[in-house]
């Protein structure tokens, strides 16, 4: 007996990027002192007032089926939150609640793309993007981000050259995982204009919106006249340290939200009521996201200061998010071997770059996912290992 073609589509090479991290968890379980910087899970606890709201929801009987698009109160709260971020008019009719931004991503492509379509994604590409695109039947077309001394940035000419008559969507994320790029409003507005002119969807993954360091968060959704072509994905995972709660949403035109209703019926039949009640409490909290951002900024600066002592490693300071891409080509080995040996010899877990696109073979991704003394120690171990090669 065989599995379906779908499984082949979603189990490509990028899906193997987490193997080193899984081995690191096994080592930790066996008592090895591993500094794990490989998975995008903030090491903070969820703020207590959010946990209290979940306990209150449980004790008040919020344990039943939810409306398929989400609780009305939560969808209205998301609309209020979105208006603060983007301006303009946004109503609950433009919002669907899903079990995490990853589910929102996969569901969005199931609703808009099919066999014969092409979807453009930017490389370095988040490791799950190939699976969600190919899972819909569409073909993944990658456009490499340009890079200068300040980091990665959009080149609209490169994107336009990649558009064909089969292009159904362009997928971006800013702040970017893994590159740390934060795109500027002017470029995002022009990209949205291109999508509107060509009849293409622009899918904007904004789960790291709260982690912009040098510049404010920018979004194509801010531009009102192109909103009918834009789908925004968001969640509480990074902004409120709620990765395990599995709560996300999309903001989109009403025809997409209606499609999400049918998909929810067929796939997950709503999201836990008590989690949604806690999400309402979280969305009213802008203070903890600000606090988390400052912590990550300090960690970033401390880590890079130590890493820059290397004559072998090369990187740019990320402008947002919680990750740093490190070019390791001068070591003479690729990212997979580097990550495997780094774990074995120095007990530091990172993600090999092959999961982020073919051009990232000689790179690793490192997260600022521990306190500064541990991050400093991790940077010293990485530098020591790289120099030894």
* CATH topology-level fold name of the largest domain: Aspartate Aminotransferase, domain 2
Structural class: alpha/beta
Number of helices: 13
Shape: globular
Radius of gyration: 21 Å
Give average pLDDT, whole number: 96
Describe it.
The chain has 389 residues and is an alpha/beta fold. It has two domains: 5-46 and 288-388, Aspartate Aminotransferase, domain 1; 64-283, Type I PLP-dependent aspartate aminotransferase-like (Major domain) (Aspartate Aminotransferase, domain 2), CATH 3.40.640. It has 13 helices and 15 strands. The chain has helices at residues 5-10, 19-29, 48-59, 72-86, 101-112, 129-135, 156-162, 185-198, 254-266, 273-283, 287-307, 335-346, 372-388; strands at 35-36, 95-98, 118-123, 139-144, 146-148, 151-153, 167-173, 201-205, 230-235, 248-251, 314-315, 323-327, 348-349, 351-352, 363-367. The strands form four sheets. The protein has a seven-stranded mixed beta sheet with strand order 2-10-9-8-7-3-4, with helices on both faces. Strand 7, helix 8 (185-198) and strand 8 (201-205) form a beta-alpha-beta unit. Helix 5 (101-112) packs across helix 9. It is globular, with a radius of gyration of 21 Å. The model has no long low-confidence stretch (mean pLDDT 96).
